[in-house]
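The authors assume throughout that readers already know how a fold can be written as discrete tokens. What matters is that the chain and its backbone geometry are given together, residue for residue. A single example would do more here than another paragraph of explanation. For illustration, here is how one protein appears when written out as sequence plus structure tokens.
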Amino acid sequence: MPKSEDTTPQPLVSIVVLNWHGTEDTLRCVSSVNELDYANIQLVVVDNEFSSDSREKLETIAVKGSKSNYSYVPLVANAGFTGGEIEGLKHCSGDYILILNNDATIEPGAVRQMLRTFATDTMIAAVGGRSYLLDDNGNKMGIAHYTHQRVDPVSAEVTTYSQDDGSLRDVSNVSGACVMIRRQAIKQCGYFDSDFFAYFEETDLFSRFRRQGWRVVFDPKVIIWHKMGASTRNKKYMYNYLMLKNQFFFAYKNFDTKYLKLYKKTYFRHVRRSFLVYLKSRGKFDKDNIIHKARVHALVKIAASYLSLRKARREVFKSNPNFSLNDHLFTDNPLPMSVFVDATGCTKAQLKILSHNLEGIASSPIKPSEIIVVSKIKVPIKETERLLRYTNVIDKGLFSMSPLDFFFMTSNNDCLLFSGSSLLQRRLTDGELKVHQSYLKSLYTRWTSSEVFAVVGSTAGRTRLNLTTLLKDAYDIQALRKSALTNHIAEQTHISTISNNTLTDVIGRCVAQGLPVHLTPTSDIYALQRGDLDLTYEPILSKPILWRIKQTLTDLHLWSISSKILKKLTRENSHNNEAADTNPVAPDLEYSSSIPVIINSRDRYEPLMQLIQWLEKLGHSRILLVDNDSTYPPLVDFFNSTQYQVISLGRNGMHKAPWESMAVRFAAKDEPYILSDPDILPSEQYPKNPIEYFCDLLNTYNDINKVGFGLRIDDLPDSYLQKQDVINWESRYWSKDLKLQPNIYKASLDTTFALYRPHTWWFLDPSIRTGAPYFAQHEPWYQSSKEPTDDFAYYRMRASRDVSTWGFDSLPKHHMRALKKEGFVNEIIDEEDE
């Protein structure tokens, strides 16, 4: 059959590219424009603060089509993103304006796809798409990408998503790196506000579009490749100043009166602290504190612009005074809140009720972004939108972990909601679901604007938990800030599982520290019973004046001052993570096949299967798999069907994930444990069980806290292009200076297969690597670089270069600098930008 012709209209599209000291990026961008499969384009390059070099290279650019389709616009000064785009618009003749960052390249079919989307509805004002990543040299980095953006309805912060459900959707924001805008919408609503200079300018524009009935649409079929923030990556003060100033400008112009008051309350709370830090430092800051200087300077600019801001706000609201941007922002995307349901003791009838209720919550206009159910059997719900993460953790009974342990490890938001029995007892009506939405909206508003640390249900007629209600009245736990719980667990190192008592103790400590803990009427849906209260901080609470002072300091956001006072709350019987390191006589370890095995996994299926089979032959069955957001289909299928315990983090916690997620703490408790990456392949034959051998070594060397396999480097194939890099890197660990005895080396060991003493955190030294015959293979070193397996090729596309060393064509710069310093290579390595 003959190929059908595309009947999409062929309107003129004007493409505007801004250049600011990035000429090579701009030329690369223009080259991709010339590869578009759409001919009716006009290219406008605006050269901010042009130089003689950039002008020479850019004004003679050859553009597909006639030369009249290209305009070079040099500007004497840097007008910023907004000024440059406003100037570029003056030279545009198209019915559609495509804004394209100069540090991006566009896929050939992107313009045609955008026009198809515009053709579906004349009220679409803007269309944006996916941004995949480029490295500093303009090379494509794999399948990781960014999609559309969420604008917080209370804090005005903008969050960029890294996933979508593959369908068109109306959104709060699409990235200004590549967005096509209908000229008719610009004529009605105006264009960028020059006061923004850079950042939040598109957020402001899209909000004005929506106020007048226009749509902003995300289309996942529109694809660009982008360096992400190349223009301000090394300009931290400039970035923070513009973001803080423009966030206020945006909120002031567009937020409803109620939410603007809440926003200003939060904004000025931060300003107070920054102002005091600014005075203390006399205006001098290092790079870690530059945000305080930026915030103070932003406030000065805001004060100077106050009258013009008021005028701009009146003009915006005049266009449609009945429109509530904040209401739309609440329903655009799920709220960053995690809901926990303990279904471990439910009947099948209760699980059916739960599934129905969760489907209702997931399909509500206002909903949380995570629902986590812990159960003994699977609790399915109908497929939800991709931005709402539903996780059903099946407790396999291999480890003595509580349902709250699983919730803590798998949740990704700071706001944790604990559901009560209502979701399990009866089907919620439509009216109850509306009440539920109202509750989420009210809770999130209070949570964000007042920086609440916990919400508890009580019959007391107060709004904030005080000393009397803490010590005497009963209350139910509804919500808790995860960061408060994390800090508590990190401080109280004897805690090896989370219970209601733990949560209650955290709430009590928050009250003792003067942190906001709010009271609400007991909710039908969200409530856990109160646990036992630990009163180790009661002496502090018995001094009302001191407590009031701390509460006031906290309300003023003076953390640096109040924290010095609050150090007295640390328990005297707490022990720290270095206890095992400082103990001169460590107890002997006994080998057992019941030693917990923790494997940190991400997208590696084939080597993981070989490692698990090897462990099974040794009789190990207590295996915990920490899943760092794997998406490789065979591995996902295995996680869904395996007999072993799986913890799906929903994020890439990278190499420290087992410790930072507390998986080690909750699974190993007081036992020694084994931890490994999934791509370590032990041999099929050893003189002795190697794990038992590791135990013997730990019993021999009391100053060593972990022993692991040394990695072979004498049999690497030539098809692996980094063979010599590996040999250079690994040879350092077989130095005679590191030898303790034959084939035993006191050398650094990362996350290679190793046995750890109880209560040990991630560390490199002191460690022991075993030599022959107790070697293992690192599977990536045996891959053909030009023809990797499907498994490894998929992993490499999603791998982070921050921790993945051996899956690419060259070593990271920090590795090469280390080799040069130790004399293994002679190349001159450029220092990375600060």
Remarks:
- Confidence is low (pLDDT under 50) at residues 568-583, 828-834.
- The two ends are 58 Å apart (CA to CA).
